[in-house]
Design brief:
The chain folds into three domains: 232 residues, ANL, N-terminal domain (Rossmann fold), CATH 3.40.50; 75 residues, Roll (Luciferase, domain 3), CATH 2.30.38; 100 residues, 2-Layer Sandwich (GMP Synthetase, Chain A, domain 3), CATH 3.30.300.30. It is 29% helix and 24% strand. Strand 22 and strand 23 form a beta hairpin. It is globular and about 70 Å long.
Length: 548
């Protein structure tokens, strides 16, 4: 057999091949635009030269403590400069960044710390109380570093708990070398971050990202968001959520400015948009509602175009119209933790602007087409793995394939194999494929409730309800909510002769769950069941929808 001339003497070498990593985005921005503002936090202004140096200092300090490939550094931080530095400094050592959801309860935090085998933990003092409880439960004993955020220039001081660590973040950072010689990953498949799902049954699963996917998401986010040179990005999306949809790494591609925002409040958002000329932000429908429903005294005028990325249920036409009038252009996205955040975008065609209102709404209700960094998006029969007809009616499971699909679930080969069965990632979401290739979700096969952009397991809430001595049966479904998108609605069947109130049930759940997971409404009734005793949730969903 004749040798292929295009594969002979044309091997990879350091000159023509380097593993992809999002760390290169920051390094390039610091080299090309060292004096451009990279981070704004209240009165603080940090240029790219300083941002890069501090990230390298963090990496140097971590490496001096033995942190390297195979180690996990966990952080419980708000949208602050330290969180941005962690996204770069931790992987510069070869270690994996684990960002904790700041709304979690102590038991789940402890589980994650143990499952991730955390070596070092950086915790904001706002969350020190719950973290102290978690550390008392956890089996691991990480080095704990306190982050004392000055919250520069704000008029609303945030609560600060006690220092629970043995070192202060700034002191820890100062011991590092700002010219630390960090290295690219040995392989772009090396892990860069760990994000936990909310867990539909049992404990949450740890989703592992690699350097290649995070790097590609940087380019894809720029395209999907329409970012030009030097965009100004307002941090309304939590950076702990899918690594902030990978935007901590994305802005380095175009040398953008991160505007940190500790708390999502209408006045603070409008002030930042007007003062810093924000061009982009991301968030759940609640962020839109917060902006639109703000008192007139908190609203600020601005003349720049602002792109708003949202990735939940499609906003109704009335909300889109209000957002447009307020100066925001809404970009509808869809994705999962397992796909590095958004992997589908509703690419809008200018011809659709001329459609009648009802047809326009139908187009906007669709999740869309694959991201530029995603190789495959399909709706398939999960049993046969055959694509469903592209008729907009036949329901199948939405599946993904490509470089922005997770490596798998940490220490859970069975779950990973199940998720990747047939060579596609199974999302668990049910949808249809339209003739033009746009997908549209129709239901959630695992009954996940999306509230304020966060996933809530109905099973977890039901388990809490069943722990009340008066409860005979319980079912939890999503109830539409103008502010949060969805909230948990509980239907409870009491034991004969027992009584309970709605407030009592909600308070009971609050002793077992994080507050955002607790039901907002409790309905007492006999639950509809099949002949085999299975609760008919589809009936309850309709009841909850009607009540809303």
């Amino acid at each position: 057999m004749t040798a292929d001339p295009f594969e002979t003497g044309l091997d990879r070498n350091p000159a023509n091949y380097q593993p992809l990593t999002p760390l290169s985005h920051l390094a390039r921005a610091a080299s090309v635009y060292p004096d451009h503002t990279a981070v704004i936090h209240g009165d603080l202004r940090m240029d790219y030269r300083t941002f890069y140096a501090r990230s390298r200092q963090l990496a140097s300090s971590l490496a001096a403590r033995g942190i390297g490939k195979g180690d996990t550094v966990s952080v419980m931080l708000s949208n602050t400069p330290a969180m941005l530095e962690a996204h770069h400094g931790v992987p510069m050592t070869g270690a994996v960044l684990h960002s904790l959801n700041t709304r979690l309860d102590a038991a789940i935090i402890a589980f994650q710390l143990d499952h991730a085998d955390t070596s070092i933990l950086i915790v904001d003092r706002e969350f020190s109380a719950v973290m102290k409880q978690a550390l008392e439960i956890a089996k691991v004993s990480p080095l704990v570093i306190d982050y004392d955020d000055p919250d520069f220039g704000t008029d609303t001081p945030f609560p600060k708990g006690e220092c629970i660590g043995t070192e202060d973040y700034e002191e820890f950072l100062s011991s590092g070398d700002p010219e630390f010689d960090w290295h690219r990953p040995d392989d772009e498949w090396d892990s860069i971050s760990l994000n936990y799902t909310s867990g539909t049954t049992g404990n949450p699963k740890g989703v592992v990202y690699h350097h290649r996917g995070a790097a590609l998401m940087g380019y894809a986010n720029v395209i999907a968001s329409g970012m030009g040179r030097h965009p100004v990005y307002l941090w309304t999306l939590p950076m702990f959520h899918c690594n902030g949809w990978c935007f901590p790494w994305t802005l380095g591609v175009v040398a953008g400015t991160h505007v940190c925002l500790r708390w999502v409040r209408a006045g603070a958002m409008y002030d930042a948009i007007a003062q810093h000329r924000v061009t982009h932000l991301c968030g759940a429908p609640i962020v839109m509602a917060t902006l639109l429903n703000a008192p007139d005294g908190e609203k600020r005028a601005f003349d720049q175009a602002v792109s708003f990325n949202t990735a939940a249920a499609p906003p109704p036409e009335s909300v889109l119209a209000q957002m447009s009038e307020a100066g925001f252009e809404v970009v509808h996205l869809y994705g999962l933790t397992e796909t590095y955040g958004p992997a589908v975008v509703n690419e809008w065609h200018s011809a659709w602007d001329d459609l009648d209102p009802q047809s326009r709404v139908a187009m906007k209700a669709r999740q869309g087409v694959r991201y530029t960094a995603l190789e495959g998006l399909s709706v398939r029969d999960p049993q046969t793995m055959e694509p469903v007809p592209a008729d907009g009616e036949t329901i199948g499971e939405v599946m993904f394939q490509g470089n922005i699909v997770m490596k798998g679930y940490l220490k859970n080969e069975e779950a990973s194999a199940e998720a990747f069965a047939g060579g596609w990632f199974h999302s668990g979401d049910l949808g249809v494929m339209h003739p033009d290739g746009y997908i549209q979700l129709k239901d959630r096969s695992k009954d996940i409730i999306i509230s304020g952009g966060e996933n809530i397991s109905s099973i977890e809430v039901e388990d809490a309800l069943y722990k009340h001595p008066a409860v005979q049966a319980a079912a939890v479904v999503a109830r539409p909510d103008d502010k949060w998108g969805e909230t948990p609605c509980a239907f409870v069947e009491l034991k004969p002769g027992q009584t309970a109130s709605e407030d009592e049930m909600i308070e009971h759940c609050r002793t077992l769950l994080a507050r955002f997971k607790c039901p907002r409404h409790v309905v007492f009734q006999d639950l509809p069941k099949t002949s085999t005793g299975k609760i008919q949730k589809f009936v309850l969903r309709e009841q909850a929808k009607s009540a809303a």
